[in-house]
Amino acid sequence: MVKGGIAFLFFLLLSLIPSELYFQIGGVRFEAYRLFLLIYTVFNIQNILNTRFEKFERWIFFFCGWSLISFVAVHGISGIQSGVIRFLEVGVVYYIGRDFCLNGGAFAVRYILLSVSIAFLLMVPLALQESKDGIRVTHVIAADLAGTYAEAFIGDNYFRHGVYRSSVVFSHPILYSVIAMSLIVMTWYVFSGVVRYLFIFGYLVAAYASMTSAGFIMLAMQVGLIILDRLNMYIPGIRKSVVRLTILVLVGLQLFTTQGAIKLLLNVLALNPETAFARYYQWENAWDDVMRNKIFGIGFNEWTRPWWMPDSIDSYWLHMAVVHGLVGVSIIATFWVLLFKYLFSSYQVSKDRLIFVMSCAVLGIIFGGITVAFFDRAQTFTYLFLGMMTGYTYKRMAVIYSREQTVNAPNNSVERLRNYA
Questions:
Q1: pLDDT confidence of residue 405
Q2: Digit-coded pLDDT (tens) for 225-282
Q3: Which end of the chain is least crowded, N or C, by CB within 10 Å?
Q4: Residue of higher predicted confidence among 233 and 136
Q5: Which among 336, 325, 313, 270 is positioned nearest to 90, based on CA atoms?
Q6: For residue 60, what pLDDT band results from cuts at 50, 70 and 90?
Q7: Composition of the chain by helix, strand, coil, percent to 5
Q8: Mean pLDDT of 140-163
Q9: Quick one: average pLDDT of 125-140?
Q10: Rg (CA), the chain
Q11: How far apart are CA 28 and CA 48, in angstroms?
Q12: Helices (DSSP H) in 173-237: which residue ranges?
């Protein structure tokens, strides 16, 4: 457990170094956190290979494998580098969170939440200052140290609702918000008193200063699900009714509106009309590329779009479909769905509210991914948090099944569960 805690802390600290601070070896760009992940993998690859993952977890490694295959199919030998990076930033990071919380249980979860919350609390002064003047101080300092380049002024295009969108140490304001909103509800549940309110304040500043719709969507989704679960205690069956109604509404929007469900939601949920317009046309144009490259996607090649559109794709799920084809996005989506199913079914057995809050966080991230792409640090932190949730839940269920001496553990894994009890 100590090694897992040290590995997590190293990863966290190195991930908070702005992306402008990097170096190159043989034309390959190295950032500190990637170098750490590479070294960690070299020393722990045997442990990773020997780990008996649950069936649903294997999908994340299927995705890493398919990423490598699709990159090589599109880019040739040079695609191997991108495939290795995908494995490091998805598979290995997931393993770090999983391994630490599998051995450390509730203590490890609290340790992770405490560390990240302190980091975001320390960012508050920088975020508020950047929201006032738009000057990216940390990025300029990092660029000066590395001899690279960084835009000092974020620009008026990032001025929204009275504030300049802050990114602090991250490469984009979206990352600052998404990472914060992934943990805000779990932090509220785990901590209490003054500490709770201080940490929540740090996360809310991130949502305000970054001013991105994804963060607010993720928070609203999690809070709404918790309220719905509370109502279900007093009105049995209301949860199922709301789920069925939601599905019915989405199907109706898809069938009877000209925009379709996803595009209509993009318009409704965006914080400004220009963003909604851009995302609408991203789906219009990028989906054509997906249909023309269903198997392997187009990798990092340029996707078809008007000359005036930027090259970014503001949807994690669309981005995965474009880069890795329908096969790739189907594989990773399967992992997410099965993970949620595992967490929620474990909550129904254990009645552990933290597991329920984790399942709400997963749904919040899934829906947030409709409006933003989890790139750079958002990708690594997201899969670290998913590993944390899986490890804690597995450990928690191990204790329960060991006490009950039952043979009804999911996936017939009683003996493995007892080993971690």
A1: 55
A2: 888 888 887 888 787 788 788 778 767 766 666 666 666 666 666 656 566 667 777 8
A3: C
A4: 136
A5: 336
A6: very high
A7: 75, 5, 20
A8: 82
A9: 91
A10: 21
A11: 25
A12: 173-190, 193-210, 213-234
Cβ atoms 4, 99 nearer than 8 A: yes
- Better-predicted residue by pLDDT, 180 or 250: 180
pLDDT of residue 53: 92
Lowest mean pLDDT among 143-157, 350-364, 367-381: 143-157
Question: How are beta strands 159-160 and 28-31 bridged, if at all?
Answer: unpaired
Q: Tokens at residue 378, please?
A: 């958002």
The rounded distance, in Å, linking the Cα atoms of 57 and 45 is 17
**CA 212 vs CA 163, 176, 410, 421: distances in Å:** 11, 9, 39, 41
**38-55, pLDDT tens digit by residue?**
999 999 999 999 998 999
In terms of phi and psi (left: phi > 0; alpha: psi -120 to 50; beta: otherwise), the region of 26 is left
Residue 411 phi/psi, 5-degree rounding, is 60, 25
- φ and ψ at residue 191, rounded to 5 degrees: -105, 165
Dist. CA 382–CA 105, nearest whole Å: 19
Q: What are the distances in angstroms from CA 9 to CA 72, 78, 89, 108, 231?
A: 33, 32, 16, 11, 38
Round to whole Å and give the CA distance between 93 and 11.
9
Per DSSP, the three-state class of 310 is: coil
- Are 317 and 329 contacting, i.e. CB atoms less than 8 angstroms apart? yes
Dist. CA 312–CA 172, nearest whole Å? 12
317-326 mean pLDDT = 94
Specify the amino acid at residue 391: G
In the numeric block, which tokens belong to residue 302?
Answer: 């340029």
Domain ranges of the chain: 2-419
d(CA 235, CA 71): 50
Distance of CA 406 to CAs 8, 316, 353, 357, 399, Å? 34, 40, 22, 26, 11
Tokens 């399967």 belong to 334
The reported pTM is 0.89
What is the DSSP-derived secondary structure letter of residue 167? -
Report CA torsion sign: 312, 316, 317, 320. Answer: positive
CB 270 within 8 A of CB 276: yes
Q: For residue 31, which phi and psi values (nearest 5 degrees)?
A: -105, 160
Rounded Cα gap, residues 338 and 87, in angstroms: 20
The DSSP letter of residue 345 is H
